[in-house]
Amino acid sequence: MRSWTGSVAFLTGGARGIGLGIARALGKRGVRLAVTDVDAVALERAGEELADLTEVTTHRLDVRDRDSFAAVADEVERELGQVDLLFNNAGIVPFALPEDLTYDKWDLSLAVNLTGVVNGVQTFLPRMIERGAGHIVNTASGAGLVADSNVLYVTAKFAVVGLSESLRLAAARHGVGVSVLCPGPVDTGIVANTRTLEADVALRDDLVPAVEEFLRSGPGIDEVGEMVVAAMNAGKPWIFTGDEVRPHLEERMKALLASV
Fold first, then answer.
1. What CATH number is associated with residue 174?
2. How far is the C-alpha of 72 from the C-alpha of 44, rounded, in Å?
3. What is the pTM of this model?
4. How many domains are contained in the chain?
5. In what order do the strands lie in the sheet with 32-37?
6. pLDDT, tens digit (0-9, with 9 covering 90-100), for 115-146
7. Which of 32, 62, 74, 183 pairs as cysteine with 55 (C-beta 3.0–4.6 A)?
8. Residue 154 gets which letter from DSSP?
9. Does 1 fall in a domain?
């Protein structure tokens, strides 16, 4: 079990939802925070709140922009010191029926939910390797372990799980830990946030009430933040927010093994 008190954490999508819950949990433990988000209003609000807990800086960042990622990383390390903890949390929940898929929808979904994670890893992993320490938590989903019919979302989240599992094996010899967060339902507002994007990848209107009700059935963001920090401190490879995925995982594993 490790304590990261006094270290520096860099969070994407940190002004709302699970990212904010993680930031609150870290702040209570004396971790200095670099909170990034694309929502400037939410970012300002989060910065004011978190400043009561710890030293915090806020930065507007689109995780698709590699140059901005590097520039913000440099600024954070000048202001707060070396980044020890990276939380690649920014994400959207895109949706399209198979007959409505387009290259633009694929590009947006993969750019935010997968390449955004890659950009975070590639920005900070070399620095962590040079220092011989650090921990990375990538946010995937239960849908990254068991597929549903939302191909845009599932494709990216399966990739994030594979990336995280492989990187954990590869980076361990450098003293860098990796965990993947696979949340079930959590009331984060991600559906509404996705509907503000420039591309038409939002859930259909008729699906929104049921999905939002499902998300509200899970734990709150502060409870999830505590789960994430506890699991990270214990060095766990997978982090779950509930057991909703268990029967689906069992069914999938049985089917896979029966096919070998």
1. 3.40.50.720
2. 16
3. 0.91
4. 1
5. 56-60, 32-37, 8-11, 85-88, 134-139, 176-182, 238-240
6. 999 999 999 999 999 999 999 999 999 999 99
7. 32
8. H
9. no
